[in-house]
Amino acid sequence: MKALATRFTMFVLGLFILSYGVALAIRSKLGVSPISSLPVAISKVTGMTVGRITIFFYLVLVVAQIIILRKDFKVKNLLQIAFSSVFGFFTDSALSVTAALAPQSYIIKLIFLLTSVFLMGLAVFMLLVADIVNNSPEALCKAIAEKYSIDFAKVKIWFDLSCVAISATVSLIFFGNIGLIREGTIIGALFIGKIGGFFYRSYKHKVVSMLGI
């Protein structure tokens, strides 16, 4: 029971860190991660907060999983809804806390961006170690990969590209530009997973042993 409580705590802390990674990427104005790009674009169009749009977006992804997996969808995966709500709240909170941050020079913006990529990579590691439930985007990619026998990495790449393409289209239609699809989007796509993987390979066993999970 103690081990489960520790894993839940780590998972929630991972979501908290992830939210600040998203917030710093937005504040850098150099581009957000592929998954965040769509909620950010829709937020600018509707005026709703990024956190609320993220909650709705993740809910749609859970529904998509249910449609794809049907009887193979596990009840445990409904926890994604609860955790997406927590993540949405954390994201809005992080954006509120960082509202006064408005870096002007490119170097400072780049520091913000790289810090955000590091934080998101660290958060990915913590979510993987906690092993409570997959984040909704990864869970949908996994469902598609398993259902149609497609390599997960390929599904993830196409999912990320789809998010970026839809986000860019929405921004072009309403604002005449591609919004926060910039170099940071590419950097995030290339390195967030790699950083998370590095931590996972290097420190998973140490953390599991230290926390007794």
TrEMBL record:
Keywords: Membrane, Transmembrane, Transmembrane helix. Signal peptide: none annotated. The chain crosses the membrane at residues 49-69, 81-101, 107-130, 157-178, 184-203. It comes from the Bacteria. This is Membrane protein YczE. It comes from Youngiibacter multivorans.
